Amino acid sequence: CTFIGLQEEAEIEVPCDLSGCSAPYEDPASVAGGSIIGFNYYPLAETRVLSDGCPEYSFDFEQRGFYIENLIEGNREQILDIHVGSPSFSSSGDTLVFSKQGVVFLLTAPYTDPLYILASEYKNYGNPALSPDGKYLATNNSIGDTIGVWIEELSTGQETYIGYGGSPVWLDNQ
Question: What's the rounded Cα separation, in Å, for the pair 121 and 76?
Answer without folding.
Answer: 35
